[in-house]
Write a structure and sequence with these properties.
The chain has 148 residues and is an all-alpha fold. The chain has one domain. Helix content is 81%, strand content 0%. The chain contains five helices and no strands. Keywords: Membrane, Signal, Transmembrane, Transmembrane helix.
């Protein structure tokens, strides 16, 4: 069963991953103009372009801090709940952040997608809770029967 702290951590991860995606996208504008002769020097020039750009570096560091929180949370969270929850909610945070930044997010189909995603996450959470409740009920029943 997922605890409140685990769910808040997963929500934080989704916000950090999803919320930074539109910011990272905006900060990479202009990288296509970086031109070098060889593949290695092209790669190094692009890395330099990105990491000397604070508009890219700050969201990147926030995004990576989400990865650290996710890794720590996975030590105690149910993997079958954590992964779909974070992935689907990060998608929602990406869409919402993009919308706040003035990006077009796809209209009615996107809203329907968000609603269906939230429904799916809700079902995953309820399924996790009901499985834990069933396991607890079985353990309680087993304890009573073996105690007689």
């Amino acid at each position: 069963m997922a605890t409140v702290v685990q769910m808040l951590c997963l929500l934080l991860v989704a916000a950090l991953w999803g919320g930074t995606n539109p910011l990272l996208k905006r900060a990479t504008v202009g990288i296509e103009h970086v031109k070098e002769g060889s593949r290695i020097s092209q790669f190094l020039a692009e890395v330099k372009f990105l990491f000397l750009n604070l508009k890219y570096l700050l969201p990147f560091l926030l995004n990576q801090s989400g990865s650290v929180v996710f890794y720590i949370t996975l030590a105690t969270a149910d993997l079958s709940l954590a992964v779909p929850t974070v992935n689907s909610l990060s998608f929602l945070f990406t869409m919402l952040t993009g919308k706040l930044l003035g990006e077009d997010f796809g209209g009615k189909r996107a809203v329907l997608g968000m609603v269906l995603t939230m429904l799916g996450v809700t079902l995953c959470v309820f399924s996790s809770v009901s499985e834990a409740d069933n396991a607890e009920l079985i353990n309680m029943t087993h304890s009573r029967n073996s105690g007689h």
